[in-house]
Write a structure and sequence with these properties.
single chain, alpha/beta, Serine Threonine Protein Phosphatase 5, Tetratricopeptide repeat, Rossmann fold, 5-stranded parallel sheet, 4-stranded mixed sheet, 26 helices, globular, disordered N terminus
Length: 604
């Protein structure tokens, strides 16, 4: 491990597959990745044939032995033999290629990248190097680099269905759905029997937000190969989005039984967790949710905490425990729902330390004054995500530690275990009074409408701004901008097209000043919007909240309410993308709550 790991950016930290910076109802990730394996049997056979043509008789036997070792899945011996060959001829591209394969399959991505780069320089016409390096770049999240390498490979192998699949995956993951479909169409026309291509097409359409059509393509993949676990798993995801969680669970269970690798099974187990929670099987769902912590899970965060890990049956009384926030900022707020229970379980002789996103420290410290609150830090180390809590110090005595979501396994095993309390965070009363004095007269409704992260399928969870037209047309209501990030275009559109002036609170950074944002939300008569970091702050702080939710959101725990914030009122479209009826319902409810602009307490 590097002694000075690079700090992980907010964007990369948010790309871990969960809530990111915001807390949206997490959607299980589709299984449609760059296919093939570094050093596949066919590739190694071709490589062996190429090695046979070498005239360097001294290293030729070493390279043949290295290929044989890799074919036998002996990555260490294959790598050692490749190094011996390179000691004799450091300019041998095949040696670098074999070493790259060995290091990748051993999980040393950083070294593997460097070896692939050397091999590609020395073997520019050997397109297999570009394909394998592209798969590694894809796995490391370097989708633009992967696209270039897959394009290079496909130019040399224009008829390769694997090459078309891999390029389409790289394009899809950059949100370039139409381009991905254009790559897949001729490949499917030439290879209609390949279930891999139908599956990837289904993932592209699913990411676009059309689960019904995606399910058709997954059905076609399964028609060609009924045992194709990824396609069955993906069809389960589509069925969940279409409002069939029972069917989704059935598909997911079957897929887990047929998945080829532990990494795939863990991904599917994590998806099963959300399906179970959506069905109301909350305790079993949280148990499955632990898959996110397994070392072989592709997006695992490695926690660098020198203490035993908490388990649900641990005796907590009198213990010193560290709770570490995870996933996105909104998730940290939502999962903090259990902290009052944890403090009670630790008792007067116990001690709780809480590691959170730095912007949350003042709010959490005020809310939980008996705890010690500090910042966690996240780094990228050789392509892996690592998180620690430096404020704890090397000499602090910890009895236990836990990632924040894991505590749900003990304290929130059913919807009924969620307390009926409006808020568990405590904004500054002086700042609430300040904002009440600053805000315009009359009914004040805080408005937010999007996430800053719109990559992948996240756009499905947020309605376009123009869909808010009927809500913004409510007479007598002053809308207060709570939307962080660049939203000047939307504010201008509201002013120009609707004649609505959305009031911007002065002197506050809505992205950075989260303690003050929580106070601002509590100064409102109502906050409306989708589930993101700000709506989570509002709900957790006890502010009146109306949430624009999504079909099948697992965060509802199989109920028709939002147990995390019981004061929240839900407005849900019947299916993805059908925002109009939900917006009309919210507009009618808003007009009823504030008739003719008269201040009223909105119904929860």
């Amino acid at each position: 491990m590097s002694p000075k790991p690079a700090a992980k950016s907010a964007a990369s930290a948010a790309a871990l597959g969960f809530g990111g910076t915001d807390a949206v109802p997490w959607s299980p990730r589709m299984a449609g990745e760059a296919s093939g394996q570094a050093g596949s049997k066919d590739a190694l056979a071709r490589l062996n044939a190429a090695v046979a043509e070498l005239r360097a008789l001294t290293i030729q036997p070493l390279l043949h032995e290295a290929v044989a070792a890799l074919q036998a899945d002996d990555f260490k011996r294959g790598g050692d033999l490749a190094i011996k060959a390179l000691d004799l001829d450091e300019k041998n591209g095949f040696g670098w290629y074999l070493l790259a394969i060995a290091r990748e399959r051993a999980g040393d991505f950083a070294s593997s990248v460097r070896c692939y780069e050397s091999a590609l320089t020395l073997l520019p016409d050997h397109a297999e190097v570009a394909n394998d390096m592209g798969r590694l770049a894809y796995r490391m999240g370097l989708k633009e680099t992967a696209e270039k390498l897959f394009t290079h490979f496909l130019a040399s192998h224009p008829g390769s269905h694997e090459g078309a699949n891999n390029l389409a995956c790289a394009l899809r993951d950059q949100g370039r759905f139409a381009e991905a479909i254009e790559v897949l169409k001729p490949a499917i026309a030439a290879n209609p029997e390949h279930p891999l291509l139908w599956n990837t097409l289904g993932t592209v359409v699913g990411e676009e937000g059309d689960p019904r059509t995606s399910a058709t393509f997954f059905d076609e993949a399964l028609r060609h190969d009924p045992d194709f676990a990824k396609a069955r798993y993906n069809r389960g995801n589509a069925r969940l989005a279409l409002g069939d969680p029972a069917g989704a669970l059935e598909d997911c269970q079957i897929a887990m039984g047929g998945s080829a690798t532990e990494e795939e099974r863990l991904m599917m187990q994590l998806a099963r967790s959300t399906i179970r929670i959506a069905l109301g099987q909350v305790g079993e769902g949280w148990d499955d949710y632990e898959a996110r912590l397994a070392p072989r899970f592709a997006d695992v965060t490695h926690f660098m905490i020198d203490a035993p890990m908490w388990a649900p049956d641990c005796d907590l009384a009198g213990k010193t425990m560290l709770l570490v926030g995870e996933q996105g900022l909104g998730d940290e707020v939502m999962f903090a729902n259990t902290i009052p229970d944890l403090i009670e379980a630790l008792g007067p002789d116990g001690r709780l330390m809480i590691a959170v996103e730095p912007r949350l420290i003042p709010l959490f410290q005020r809310s939980f004054p008996t705890a010690q609150v500090g910042a966690h830090s996240t780094w990228s180390v050789d392509g892996h995500t690592v998180r620690g809590a430096p404020f704890v110090g090397e000499h602090a005595r910890l009895d236990l530690w836990a990632p924040m979501a894991s505590v749900l396994r003990r304290f929130r095993r059913s919807p009924g275990a969620f307390p009926d309390r409006a808020g568990f965070l405590s904004p500054d009363p002086a700042r609430i009074a300040f904002w009440k004095d600053q805000l315009p007269a009359g009914p004040k409704v805080g408005l937010l409408w999007k996430s800053l992260l719109s990559n992948g399928a996240r756009h499905r969870f947020f309605s376009p701004f123009d869909q808010w037209r009927p809500v913004l047309a409510t007479p007598g209501v002053t809308f207060i901008n709570l939307q962080y990030g660049d939203c000047a275009a939307e504010l201008d559109a509201a002013r120009r097209d609707l004649g609505v002036e959305i009031w911007n609170p002065p002197g506050i950074d809505l992205k950075q000043d989260l303690d003050d944002v929580a106070a601002l939300c509590c100064a409102m008569d109502l906050v409306v919007g989708p589930s993101n970091a700000t709506s989570c702050l509002a709900g957790a702080s006890g502010a009146p909240l109306w949430l624009l939710s999504t079909p099948g959101a697992w965060t509802l725990l199989g109920t028709d309410r939002y147990p995390w914030y019981p004061q929240a009122r839900l407005f849900r479209p019947a299916s993805f993308g059908q925002w109009e009826p939900a917006m009309e319902a919210m507009a009618l409810a808003l007009a009823d709550a504030f008739p003719a602009g008269t201040k009223a307490t909105p119904a929860g």
